[in-house]
Amino acid sequence: MSQNPFDALGGAGGFDMNALLQQAQQMQEQLASAQQRLTETTVDGTVSGGAVTVTVNGVGEVVNVDIKAGEFDGSDADDLSDLGDMIVAAYRDAKAQADALAGEALGPLAGGGAPGGMPGQLGF
Domains (ranges, CATH) in the chain? Predict the structure, then answer.
């Protein structure tokens, strides 16, 4: 008895394994393309009227930090601490924008959620 186990899934008229594999390959290609576009896209997070700007790409990697000249003299620990806090805040702003872009770009390819199925987690 050498019956094809896939016959129960619709046989020749219902289940097409080649079509399923082709669809999976297309989805992989679309996902890779979307990830590449995210890597090439940048967004800025800015605080204190542009005193600090952090640029991240669509997958959340920092690509630039810009500190406006004359905003910080670094003469005391409080000034440097404030600068650190502002960099973190600008990064969080930029990262939130990058996460939103990734959700838009990858959501349809990941079943409506972020990759890994966890909201807010890119899985990269």
Answer: 43-109 (3.30.1310.10)
